[in-house]
Amino acid sequence: MKKLILVFLITCLLLSACNLPIGEPTADADEVAARVAATLAASGLTATETQPTVALPTIAIESATLTATATETVTPTPTTSPDDPRLSLGTPDFWFSPASSGDPSGVANNPYSDNAITISNQVSGLNFASKAINLGKRWRLTAFEPTNFYLEGTFKTVSCGGRDNYGLVMRVPTYNDTLGYFVGLSCDGSYIVDRLDIDGNGSNLISWTPDPNIKSGENQVNRLGVKLINDTFKLYINGILVREFNDGVIQNKGHVGAYVSAREKSNFTVDLQELMAWVQ
């Protein structure tokens, strides 16, 4: 256990709206949202409309910066696996926990809501509550922009079923870009990896793959980790290394965050309990 003083650099963005199919022509290929909508409950909030260079819907951008200083104790989740990066990485370079640091996401007094999702800060974590199925991925980004890193999110499923999925977003160059990597877990115990390219097209890098390390069903907590060094990915589920692969399409630094995608239950709900990152 290490006591550390962390300055939270958090600018949270939710990207939402229309669906773009992932490139692999299979029934299991996930959907990707292509419109950006950012929210922050802060004074002086502004909004602008810009048109991306690709043939995508108008991007609505609201920007604000929220910083906070707190003293917290970060304790790695107990594990018996020597693979677990949290056992050896020490103090994270980035850490945020909505449940223990007030309102780092800026939605406590002004939750974000649209036709697909409501995002709010709860004691249980940053709560993603879906309203409808098959409306694509909805995600939030932080101000943290690493190139090579180990990123880990702790998620608790509240209401979910089947291929409802949630996970991590990484290497998104700017807040109004429509590209990045998405690594997710489903409620039925599978993982998936997608990439959204600059032209708005999606590519399914790893199709749905069952894994016994995933705690499936509702009211379950899973830690999902991704170590990304240049073009090499290592995926960790609850501290266990489950997959290694290469993809070099996006190698520049970019924002990291979390996403959800309702596929089975219109009230698919997940809490992001913690998000941590270590620069490699």
Write a brief caption for the model.
The chain has strands at 2-10, 13-15, 19-21, 31-33, 36-37, 46-50, 59-63, 66-74, 94-96, 112-113, 117-122, 125-130, 138-141, 149-159, 165-172, 180-186, 190-196, 202-210, 221-229, 232-237, 240-246, 255-261, 269-279.
Primary descriptors:
single chain; 280 residues; mainly beta; Jelly Rolls; 9-stranded antiparallel beta sheet; 51% strand; disordered N terminus
Describe this protein's structure.
With 280 residues, the chain is an all-beta fold. It has a single domain (10-72, 79-279), classed as Jelly Rolls (Sandwich). The chain is built from no helices and 23 strands. The strands form 5 sheets. Strands 9, 10, 11, 12, 14, 19, 20, 21 and 23 form a 9-stranded antiparallel β-sheet that branches. The radius of gyration is 17 Å and the shape is globular. Residues 1-79 have low confidence and may be disordered.
Shape: globular
Helix segment tally? 0
CATH class: Mainly Beta
CATH superfamily placement: Exo-inulinase, domain 1
Give the SSE string.
Answer: EEEEEEEEEEEEEEEEEEEEEEE
- CATH names the topology as Jelly Rolls
| Sheet/helix structural class | mainly beta
Number of E-type strands: 23
**Count of domains:** 1
Q: What proportion of the residues is helical, as a percent range?
A: under 10%
Averaging pLDDT over every residue, what do you get?
Answer: 75
Distance between the termini: 21 Å
- The assembly state of the depicted protein chains is single chain
CATH-derived architecture: Sandwich
Mind telling me the C-alpha Rg?
Answer: 17 Å
